[in-house]
Every structure is written in structure tokens, then in C-alpha cells.
Design goal:
The complex is a heterodimer of chains A (115) and B (111). By secondary structure, chain A is an all-beta fold. Chain A has no helices and eleven strands. In chain A, the strands form two sheets. In chain A, strands 2, 4, 5, 6, 9, 10 and 11 form a seven-stranded mixed beta sheet that branches. In chain A, strands 1-3-8-7 form a four-stranded antiparallel beta sheet, with no helix packed on it. In chain A, a hairpin with a 2-residue loop joins strand 7 and strand 8. By secondary structure, chain B is mainly beta. Chain B has a single domain (4-106), classed as Immunoglobulins (Immunoglobulin-like, Sandwich). Chain B is 0% helix and 53% strand. Chain B has no helices and eleven strands. Chain B has strands spanning 4-7, 10-14, 19-25, 33-38, 45-50, 56-59, 62-67, 72-77, 86-92, 100-101, 105-110. In chain B, strands 2, 4, 5, 9, 10 and 11 form a six-stranded mixed beta sheet that branches. In chain B, strands 1-3-8-7-6 form a five-stranded antiparallel beta sheet, with no helix packed on it. In chain B, strand 7 (62-67) and strand 8 (72-77) form a beta hairpin. Chain B is globular, with a radius of gyration of 13 Å. Chain B starts with a strand and ends with a strand. Classes of the chains: A mainly beta (115), B mainly beta (111). The A-B interface holds A 4, 6, 34, 41-44, 46, 49, 91, 93, 95, 97, 102-109, 111 and B 32, 34, 36, 41-46, 49, 89, 93, 96-99, 101-104, 106.
Chain lengths: 115, 111
């Protein structure tokens, strides 16, 4: 089945630094990738949608200069949290859509803690 | 109109019982309705999904019932097991664009 690999699974960084999270589709071409943020005991909140080779589309209220998304190939998308602050601490999850199989596959998530 | 309302917020079921989680939507353009299971610290995993031209779909112990006229769909977990204890999310999408998630249901299956 379709597999999405997300790394790292957890990361601790100092306030003011940047963190990059990678999301790879291992056995299919992901024409579209989605990035979510999830707070404890809450639902997934869509941050942005990215199509391969295009600029990401950000949801209302999401700072595009803070959460940089790159989708340079059909198998890789990255989310960079720039100048991270403690309030950016959260669980970040990527999802890839396989245009042929018409479904969504989620990564295992990244727990970001900013100290 | 983009919301998907999910209930209950939490659910406790005895082992061997039936767990039922309900969702309702407003946007009649939605054409894909998946259910996801999420364990703590993990990403959501697809359990089962249905399209609006089908009223019921069963996969093992998991069944989706879909009522197009009422704009509601539900997940039934038969013979619930302690290993089913997790958070369940319903979702909906239109043309396989972005998924709209329900608020989640925390299921606890007691031994």
C-alpha cells in the first residue's frame, strides 16, 4: 500500500532557530501534499496545500513566511518552521494524495518542541 | 458549510460491544467520506471510506453507514476490542481536494 515517510518523528529546538520536516511518498507519486497541525486532544488543522512545482496555498491565519513549504518533486515535500517560538510547539502531520489511487496517505507525524 | 460535525466526543464501550460514531455534513458537493484511526503520537491511518453512491460499506469489523438524504454517515465497530482504543476522525472532501475533518471521538474499550 501507499506509504508516506515523515522525518524526524520528534525534534527539540531552541527558540529562534529553524526546523525542517520532511515528508516522502515512498511508492507513489504525490501530486498534492497537505500539511496539518494538531494540538493535544484536538482535530487536525490544515495549514497548507502544495502541488508539485507550485507555490503552496496557505489556509487563512497561517503565516506563510513562518511556515515555508517546498514541494520540489513528486515524492518530497518539506515544511520549515522558521524562527521557531514555544507557541509553535505542536504535532505536525503531512499527507500525500495519490492522483491515481484517489486517496490520502498520512505520515506518522513530527512532534516539535521549542524551548 | 465546510464543517463536519462529529459525535460523541468520547465513548466507552465494553469489550465485544458495538462502537458507533456519527458525523454530519452540510456541503452536498462532498463526494468522499473516510474514517481515520489515530493512536497517540502517530499520524491518522485510513480505516474505511465510502462514496455517496453507496449506502453501506463493510470491511472486517468496520462498517460505514451513509445516509445521503440526511447528510449523515456513521462508523460502526463490531466486536470492539481493547486494541481499538484510539481517537477516530471522520472526514469529507470534494473532488479529492482538501479533507475537512470532524472534531474526533476518543474511544475506550474496556476489557
Amino acid at each position: 500500500g501507499a506509504v508516506v515517510s515523515q522525518h524526524p518523528s520528534w525534534v527539540i529546538c531552541k527558540s529562534g532557530t529553524s526546523v525542517k520536516i520532511e515528508c516522502r511518498s515512498l511508492d507513489f507519486q504525490a501530486t498534492t501534499m497537505f500539511w496539518y497541525r494538531q494540538f493535544p486532544k484536538q482535530s487536525l488543522m490544515l495549514m497548507a496545500t502544495s502541488n508539485e512545482g507550485s507555490k503552496a496555498t496557505y489556509e487563512q491565519g497561517v503565516e506563510k513566511d513562518k511556515f515555508l513549504i517546498n514541494h520540489a518533486s513528486l515524492t518530497l515535500s518539506t515544511l520549515t518552521v522558521t524562527s521557531a517560538h514555544p507557541e509553535d510547539s505542536s504535532f505536525y502531520i503531512c499527507s500525500a494524495r495519490d492522483a491515481h489511487k484517489l486517496g490520502y496517505t498520512f505520515g506518522s507525524g513530527t512532534r516539535l518542541t521549542v524551548v | 458549510q465546510q464543517q463536519v460535525k462529529q459525535s460523541p466526543q468520547s465513548l466507552i464501550v465494553q469489550k465485544g460491544g458495538i462502537s458507533i460514531i456519527n458525523c454530519a455534513y452540510e456541503n452536498t458537493a462532498f463526494d468522499y467520506f473516510p474514517w481515520y484511526q489515530q493512536f497517540p503520537g502517530k499520524g491518522p491511518a485510513l480505516l474505511i471510506a465510502i462514496r455517496p453512491d453507496v449506502s453501506e460499506k463493510k470491511e472486517g469489523r468496520f462498517t460505514i453507514s451513509f445516509n445521503k438524504s440526511a447528510k449523515q454517515f456513521s462508523l460502526h465497530i463490531m466486536d470492539s476490542q481493547p486494541g481499538d482504543s484510539a481517537t477516530y476522525f471522520c472526514a469529507a472532501s470534494m473532488g479529492f481536494q482538501k479533507l475537512v475533518f470532524g472534531t474526533g471521538t476518543r474511544l475506550l474499550v474496556s476489557p
